[in-house]
Fold this sequence. Notes:
Blueprint: H1 6-11, E1 19-22, E2 26-30, E3 38-44, H2 59-75, E4 81-84, E5 100-104
This protein binds 2'-deoxyguanosine-5'-monophosphate (DGP).
Amino acid sequence: MTEETIFNRILKGEIPCDEIYRDELCLVFRDIQPQAPVHLLVIPKKNIPSLKEASHEDASLLGHLLLVSAKVANKEGLESWRTVINTGESAGQTVFHLHLHVIGGRDLLWPPG
Ligand code: DGP
């Protein structure tokens, strides 16, 4: 059995979050450790540990998450932003429930560290 993640507990309402959008497939809330003035997390309700475990049957869900990320970025008034998916520990993934970071509100450097 896979260990329950903090995001699953947020989805169940056991841990509060600063929610900004929700629909039948996903939830969006503010990151607790923001790396920019706007830092949102878009998470699917479906439990997928990371992009590594996503399959072709998740294709429309993944597309939905991308479109929602743009929708909430627009809602936050962002002109530019970065959408990030960390996959695996070495890439900085700490919560093993697939999520998209939406980061903006300041100039962002490239390449990322
Ligand atoms: P990653 O490092 O890509 O796995 O991103 C996980 C993010 O989740 C990280 O930026 C911090 C955030 N986070 C961790 N725990 C919580 C929490 O309990 N609430 C909220 N809002 N964000 C959390």
